[in-house]
Specification:
The complex is a heterodimer of chains A (302) and B (330). Chain A is mainly alpha-helical and 302 residues long. Chain A has two domains: 72 residues, no CATH class; 210 residues, Orthogonal Bundle (MetI-like fold). Chain A is built from 14 helices and no strands. Chain B is mostly helical and 330 residues long. Chain B folds into two domains: 44 residues; 191 residues, Orthogonal Bundle (MetI-like fold), CATH 1.10.3720. In chain B, a hairpin with an 8-residue loop joins strand 3 and strand 4.
Chain lengths: 302, 330
């Protein structure tokens, strides 16, 4: 009310008033934010709606039901985990196994390597680091066939080795962001530790490693998301459906459900998809600062 | 103890030198031990595979069957002249890049500008926009497979409500299947918006303040300040987008149901990497696939070369300070 009278006292048309313009501007910003937010969320919400449909129920309703309002068959999630022809609990455990090994390998190897590049002086350091930066730019797909040839020669086809062993040997992108982070600590720390009788490994273990927790969390989160979602690696190296990871099992499940079932199983396929997405979404909501921070700090993704 | 050391440093340079060298050598040995995993990995998982595949590209090397046989340039010759999928795969990949990259760059930047607005609750929206970037590509593709269903799928229902009488057949249509994949990939554009956002937040605020004092409109500030200062990020995204789009794979395998069968892609979605995958693992021609991989390595090498040798002009690695990140030079 008082604002309105202010407008009139000012003697300018209301659309030129600062406050009105600001409010209008904010309204447009919110309209766009909400609109785009809906475009992103509605498909996921449809996925949930479809996943909660009961057996024999129509998934593709006309008009489309975007929100779960009628059926809440939460047992669908349990059903896909224990589905008789292809239970998904096993791929879930397989994926967890690979995620665990990859996280351990990534954190361990990259922190060691990055420590040397960040805190120690040695001949050839700058040249080697340039090579690392250079290999960062090599697209992963270019190495698809070359790596397969090697692992196939080693007899690793059909085993998990190609999917976790390389994690223990560092990765250019991870070395890069970890090194950048470790460089930011003052040099005096190392000197003080050395005077106290700390060796190089002691400096790494007791000084730098504890201080690097944030960046190592970024690495861990990225590794979890990357390994959990990886499709190409398991597709190429795993031959037995007992070994499948969730990403690949999901498509396998969809295809076998599609070909063997006479009834519509879209609800179960959606429940399986949601199940594969949910742990990552939960992780994301809790650790999003690390994920988004990790991306914006380097301006690079994986 | 410290006094004696100091004295010896002051009095005798000759005695100090070997000790310093000994320390330096110890440090170097320790350092090489620390980085040894990377050196081993670099040789084992990068140099050797690349070497093997270079050799393989000149051989007839099959998944199962006789040992590799040297055939010279036959694989390359066959790819460039007789492979009926090679040039189409390049063409549809380039077409896909045209379909996704320019809209992706514009939308990504627009989204970042929107997320850079100082309004209440903006972090919630940032969280939402980024969701597609973390969820599994397979689950997303399966989801869109259903959304794109031409009869009862949600997208065509929306289109019909909007008055489109005859909406596209999407995945069943040779004309619309690639736009469908492009739309799906643009749904995940929030992932790149976050990178632009970091670039935007690196722009010093005082520039905008100065512009406002000088009476510049928001529009002018965008063209004269934001765009020039964000251009390094834009260029970076262009290059990575170019290489990234050449690797489109998962959606093509999931969405391209094609002739049926386990993981056999349709012709319409035979992008470069899909073609390479098919040659290697469907047809078992590893030698030929190695040649295709090498063509890809050389192509992306050219792009990478451009990035690397011009990067000094737009990227610098900040040497010190708390903000120890790759900053985009302004």
């Amino acid at each position: 009310m008082s604002q309105l009278s202010n407008l009139e006292i000012g003697g300018v048309p209301f659309w030129q008033n600062r406050n009105v313009r600001r409010a209008l501007y904010n309204a447009i910003v919110y309209a766009l934010l909400i609109g785009i937010g809906l475009i992103i969320l509605l498909p996921l919400s449809w996925m949930l709606t479809a996943a909660l449909r009961g057996e024999g129920e129509t998934v593709f309703t006309v008009p489309t039901s975007w929100f779960p309002t009628e059926s809440f068959h939460f047992e669908n999630f349990l059903r896909v985990l224990t589905y008789e022809s292809y239970p998904l609990w096993r791929p879930t455990l397989n994926t967890l196994f690979l995620v665990t090994l990859n996280v351990i390998g990534t954190v361990l190897s990259n922190s060691l390597i990055a420590f040397a590049f960040a805190r120690l002086r040695f001949p050839g350091r700058d040249l080697l680091f340039r090579i690392i930066v250079f290999t960062m730019l090599l697209p992963g797909a270019a190495l698809l066939i070359p790596s397969f040839l090697l692992f196939n020669q080693l007899g690793w086809y059909g085993t998990y080795y190609p999917l976790w062993v390389p994690a223990f040997f560092g990765n250019a992108w991870s070395i890069f962001i970890t090194r950048q982070y470790m460089r930011s600590f003052p040099r005096d720390l190392d000197d003080a530790a050395r005077i106290d009788g700390c060796g190089y490994f002691g400096i790494y273990r007791y000084i730098i490693l504890p201080m690097s927790k944030p960046v190592l969390t970024v690495l861990a989160v990225f590794t979890i998301v990357g390994v959990w979602n990886d499709f190409t690696g398991p597709l190429i190296y795993l031959s037995n459906s007992d070994q499948f990871t969730l990403a690949i099992a999901l498509d396998y499940f969809r295809r076998s459900a599609f070909s063997t079932m006479s009834v519509n199983t879209t609800n179960l396929v959606m429940a399986a998809s949601l199940l594969s997405v949910l742990p990552i979404l939960i992780l994301y909501f809790f650790l999003q600062e690390y994920l988004i921070g990790g991306i914006s700090s380097v301006g690079l993704k994986g | 103890m410290a006094d004696i050391q100091q004295m010896s440093v002051r009095t005798s340079n000759i005695r100090q030198e070997p000790k310093k060298m000994r320390l330096a050598r110890r440090e170097a040995i320790a350092a090489y031990l620390f980085i040894s995993p990377w050196i081993i990995g670099f040789v084992l998982f990068l140099l050797i595979p690349i070497g093997i595949s270079l050799y393989a590209s000149f051989t007839r090397w099959t998944l199962i069957g006789p040992p590799p046989r040297w055939v010279g340039f036959e694989n390359f010759e066959q790819i460039f002249t007789r492979d009926r999928y090679f040039w189409p795969s390049i063409r549809i990949t380039l077409e896909y890049i045209l379909l996704t990259l320019p809209p992706g760059l514009v939308l990504g930047l627009s989204l970042a500008l929107l997320l850079n607005q100082k309004v209440a609750g903006i972090r919630i929206f940032r969280t939402i926009f980024y969701i597609p970037a973390v969820v599994s590509g397979v689950a997303v593709a399966i989801l869109w497979l259903n959304l794109f269903n031409s009869e009862v799928g949600a997208i065509n229902q929306v289109l019909r409500t909007l008055g489109v009488v005859d909406p596209p057949n999407w995945l069943q249509s040779t004309q619309w299947v690639r736009p469908a994949v492009a739309i799906m990939s643009l749904w995940g554009i929030g992932g790149t918006a976050v990178i632009y956002l970091a670039g935007l937040q690196n722009i010093p605020v005082h520039l905008y303040e100065a512009a406002e004092i000088d009476g510049a409109s928001g529009w002018q500030a965008f063209w004269k300040i934001t765009l020039p200062l964000i251009s390094p990020t834009l260029f970076f995204m262009l290059i990575t987008g170019l290489i990234g789009s050449f690797q489109v794979f998962t959606p093509a395998l999931i969405l391209g149901q094609g002739t049926g069968g386990f993981f056999s892609p349709s012709t319409e979605l035979r992008f470069y990497l899909v073609h390479l995958y098919t040659v290697a693992f469907r047809e078992g021609k590893l030698g030929m696939a190695s040649a295709l991989a090498w063509i890809f390595i050389i192509m992306s090498g050219i792009v990478t070369f451009i990035v690397y040798y011009t990067s000094e002009k737009w990227v610098y690695y900040e040497e010190s300070g708390e903000n120890n990140v790759t900053a985009i030079k302004s």
